[in-house]
Amino acid sequence: xxxxxxxxxxxxxxxxxxxxxxxxxxxxxxxxxxxxxxxxxxxxxxxxxxxxxxxxxxxxxxxxxxxxxxxxxxxxxxxxxxxxxxxxxxxxxxxxxxxxxxxxxxxxxxxxxxxxxxxxxxxxxxxxxxxxxxxxxxxxxxxxxxxxxxxxxxxxxxxxxxxxxxxxxxxxxxxxxxxxxxxxxxxxxxxxxxxxxx
Length: 198
Hints:
Blueprint lengths: L2 H7 L10 E4 L10 H8 L4 E2 L10 H14 L5 E6 L1 H12 L5 E7 L21 E6 L8 H11 L2 E4 L16 H15 L2 H4 L2
Parallel strand pairs: 1-2, 1-3, 3-4, 4-5, 5-6
Helix pairs in contact: 3-4
């Protein structure tokens, strides 16, 4: 049993309150972006806010992700990240392995080599269940590279075909897949036996 599951098994009944954490990429996610839509679709969800949305600083961004999750208190929580936010999320998990995160949805991750951060990212299976969503014509990372990272992280894999960067420019305002994944993940956490017994 991995350390994440061990941590969750030790938690007192009723102690956790799972929340959805939304992690935008470069320049944030505007009002028309599917992440903003998702924020309004899932009650109690929170959004990570960066100090400098146009500056892709992996260390600062990952610290903000970790601090946002920590401020929520006991979970475990689930994360839906996009683009550079995916890189910040997995970096946060690597730097703070005790973060109370159960699942990650990593949508259209940016190519780490573009930012010279590949070496700072996890090189093995993540400590939380994860899924990478990519496309064949994403200008920010090829499907081949995204799949290679998914395999390295032990992530589930979804290829949407010709979906670009899975953002507003690609036609993604509403994104039902993300909503279904988030509500399903949160529902499973709320249905844990120790929560029913509380």
